[in-house]
């Protein structure tokens, strides 16, 4: 069983002069070498690990911003490690890599708490774009840059500047970055149905196709955390043939 010693994190993630740190967890040396070389040329600090034990050793010793985690690892696979990592640290960036264009892998990966996913063989520039998107979510938004800092959603308060979701009793619900960004996108269009394609663009900056269930998975996770009865949602409502709507009566 893995012993969860503290993971090193940045004392101040907004220090722009510090090189962002990427941990590549993959048992393919060629992939590790290629990704490491490319990201180091882009100014990143890159470390590599071949399995879960090496991943945890590295996380305990070095501050890490984003983990690029291969699903098909020997022993404990990437999905199991993703669940462990997300349970232990809700703020670290997590991108899963799958060797198959398999929707099941992507869905289970997002359900495990991943922020995004890429499929092998991937383009290095596309991967860099994915990492940059996740890193942007790491930075708290300044109060001056947010219009309407807080949204009241039923018993919940959504703080867009601090990226927090708090219940009426003071309990702070932990959201992954993907979950928060999707909820924030819906909150910006309170009472209006938002298309899946638009949500996909706003949250993941990628196009949507009808077979892609990424948005649906994140909505299901939000309902489990926010709704009194996730099977009969009152806050995040499905608008058939369109997408999802954050009910305006949720603000009452």
From TrEMBL:
Domain Response regulatory: 21-135
CDD domains: trans_reg_C
DNA-binding listed as a keyword: yes
Localisation: Cytoplasm
Gene Ontology biological-process annotations: regulation of DNA-templated transcription
Gene Ontology cellular component terms for the protein in this record: cytosol; protein-DNA complex
Secretion signal span: none
Keywords from the UniProt entry: Cytoplasm, DNA-binding, Phosphoprotein, Transcription, Transcription regulation, Two-component regulatory system
InterPro entries: CheY-like_superfamily (IPR011006), OmpR/PhoB-type_DNA-bd (IPR001867), Sig_transdc_resp-reg_C-effctor (IPR016032), Sig_transdc_resp-reg_receiver (IPR001789), WalR-like (IPR039420), WH-like_DNA-bd_sf (IPR036388)
DNA-binding residues (ranges): 148-248
Predominant location: cytoplasm
Residue ranges of every copy of the OmpR/PhoB-type domain listed in the record: 148-248
One GO molecular-function entry: phosphorelay response regulator activity
Residue numbers bearing the 4-aspartylphosphate modification: 70
Protein name: Two-component system, OmpR family, torCAD operon response regulator TorR
Organism (species): Acidovorax soli
Taxonomic lineage of the native organism: Bacteria, Pseudomonadati, Pseudomonadota, Betaproteobacteria, Burkholderiales
């Amino acid at each position: 069983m893995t012993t969860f010693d503290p993971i090193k994190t940045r004392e101040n993630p907004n220090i722009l002069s510090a090189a962002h740190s990427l941990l590549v967890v993959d048992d393919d040396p060629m992939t590790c070498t290629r990704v490491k070389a490319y990201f180091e040329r882009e100014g990143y600090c890159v470390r590599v690990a071949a399995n879960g034990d090496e991943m945890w050793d590295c996380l305990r010793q070095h501050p890490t911003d984003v983990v690029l985690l291969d699903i098909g690892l020997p022993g404990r696979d990437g999905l199991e490690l993703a669940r462990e990592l997300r349970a232990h640290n809700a703020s670290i960036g997590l991108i899963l890599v799958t060797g198959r264009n398999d929707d099941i892998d992507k869905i289970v990966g997002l359900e495990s708490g991943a922020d995004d996913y890429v499929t092998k063989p991937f383009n290095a520039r596309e991967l860099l774009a994915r990492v940059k998107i996740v890193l942007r979510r790491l930075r708290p938004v300044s109060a001056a840059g947010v219009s309407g800092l807080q949204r009241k959603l039923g018993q919940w308060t959504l703080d867009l500047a601090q990226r927090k979701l708090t219940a009426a009793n003071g309990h702070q619900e932990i959201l992954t970055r993907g979950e928060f960004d999707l909820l924030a996108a819906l909150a910006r269009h309170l009472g209006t149905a938002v298309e899946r394609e638009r949500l996909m663009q706003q949250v993941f900056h990628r196009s949507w196709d009808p077979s892609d269930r990424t948005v649906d998975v994140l909505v299901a996770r939000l309902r489990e955390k926010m709704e009194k009865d996730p099977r009969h949602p009152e806050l995040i409502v499905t608008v058939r043939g369109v997408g999802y709507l954050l009910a305006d009566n949720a603000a009452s």
